[in-house]
Write a structure and sequence with these properties.
- The protein has one domain.
- The chain has five helices and no strands.
- It is mainly alpha-helical.
Length: 137
């Protein structure tokens, strides 16, 4: 929640008129809680993965970390990055965004907290929400 508030504050400071997009992005948290409640998929167990460094008690699908990171950095790029970065640097901004999301997704699989399909679906859920919100805007 603190991270989301920081991202929202930065975007609002850099581009005030993006507040509707931020509100729509925040509503995506509702999708996460709905999917967790409906799917209730168990997390991987020690025999299922090579490396398990944590044993969280919550369900596995979808990955809240990956959804949050994808939404937060996606909103930051859409609201602030695309407006404040010069056009030649925008592809670099999107590349950095993609690298951050990919790193987060791989790390969630590596520590044994999620199945690969969990993080892939989480990227699609967050990306789809961002696409829907920006198409309405």
């Amino acid at each position: 929640m603190v991270g989301e508030a920081v991202v929202f504050a930065i975007v609002l400071v850099l581009h005030r008129s993006s507040w509707r997009l931020l509100v729509a992005g925040a509503l995506a948290s509702g999708w996460y809680f709905l999917l967790v409640g409906v799917i209730s998929r168990p997390r991987p167990r020690v025999p299922d993965v090579l490396q398990v460094t944590e044993h969280p008690g919550a369900t596995s699908f979808p990955s809240g970390h990956v959804i949050f990171i994808t939404l937060s950095f996606g909103l930051a790029m859409l609201c602030a990055g695309c407006r404040s970065l010069p056009p030649p640097l925008r592809p670099l901004g999107w590349a950095v965004f993609s690298a951050i999301v990919l790193t987060a997704a791989i790390s969630r699989i590596y520590v044994g907290a999620h199945w690969p399909t969990d993080v892939l679906a989480s990227i699609f859920i967050a990306g789809g929400w961002l696409a829907l919100v920006t198409s309405i805007r």
